[in-house]
Design brief:
The chain is of the alpha+beta class. About 15% of the residues lie in helices and about 35% in strands. The protein has one domain (about 20-225): Fumarylacetoacetase-like, C-terminal domain (Fumarylacetoacetate hydrolase, domain 2, Alpha-Beta Complex), CATH 3.90.850. The chain has helices spanning about 35-40, 110-120, 125-130, 145, 175-185, and strands spanning about 10-15, 20, 25-30, 50-55, 60, 65, 75, 80-85, 100-105, 110, 135, 140, 155-160, 160-165, 195, 205, 210-215, 220-225. The chain is globular. The termini are far apart.
Length: about 230
């Protein structure tokens, strides 16, 4: 049986290599930095929760993307990206890092007005989070080169203005906890990406602006809004 048409495979660049990391699914952790939880007016005691983005919304570093439709409040969200290289279910926290292939810098672009409307009406966040070109991700760095970053500055600047400033050590749920929690609900598999939440300072971007997200030891990600 043949497929009636081909669909291009989604992938992310790998730093210093011509190879690419195939993307299967993108899981995103909501409210994982205490200051961001507070700025959004949510309960800091809540357990982690997840939403998803389709694989084909990945955008390369340095890309210029169109301002998305149906919003007047596009926000940047600086995030550490975890690339899964080994699948599993019900993974223990002390074994979770064995499943990580590498790490990268991401920007969870969000149509904030649509998200606020969805929250108010008790509806899913898909329209706010999973739109075209909503997941800029810089080239991934393998664990063999960068280890497992548990601390380090994470920042976002828009046209040079510092908007977000935090540290990976401020995560409420660190990477091993995220993997254990997620794998208790469903099997994770090679090619899955996890965007691990954003520090405080999220804010709007308008057409013509450039956002640079940087994580200590992992480089930077540049995205321009057309």
């Amino acid at each position: 049986m043949a497929l009636i048409f081909d669909i291009p495979a989604a992938s992310v660049a790998i730093a210093g290599s011509a190879d690419r990391f195939p993307v299967r699914r993108i899981f995103c952790v909501g409210r994982n930095y205490l200051a961001h939880v507070r700025e959004m007016g949510n309960d800091e005691r809540d357990p982690p929760f997840f939403f998803t983005k389709p694989a084909d919304v990945v955008v390369e570093d340095g890309a210029t993307i169109p301002y998305p439709p149906q919003t007047a409040d596009l926000h940047h969200e600086a995030e550490l990206v975890v690339a899964i290289g080994k699948g599993g279910r019900d993974i223990a926290e002390d074994a979770a890092l064995d499943h990580v292939w590498g790490y990268g810098v991401g920007n969870d672009l969000t149509r904030r007005d649509l998200q606020a409307q969805a929250k108010k009406m008790g509806r899913p966040w898909d329209w706010a989070k999973a739109f075209d070109a909503s997941a800029p991700i810089a080239p991934l760095h393998p664990v063999t080169q960068v280890g497992h970053p548990a601390k380090g500055a994470i920042t976002a600047r828009v046209d040079g203005e510092l908007r977000q400033q935090g540290d990976l050590s401020e995560m409420i749920w660190p990477v091993p906890s995220i993997i254990a929690f997620l794998s208790a609900s469903m099997e994770i598999r090679p090619g899955d990406l996890i965007m691990t939440g954003t520090p405080a300072g999220v804010g709007p971007m308008v057409a013509g602006q450039t956002c640079i997200v940087e994580i200590e030891g992992l480089g930077s990600l540049t995205t321009t809004i057309a």
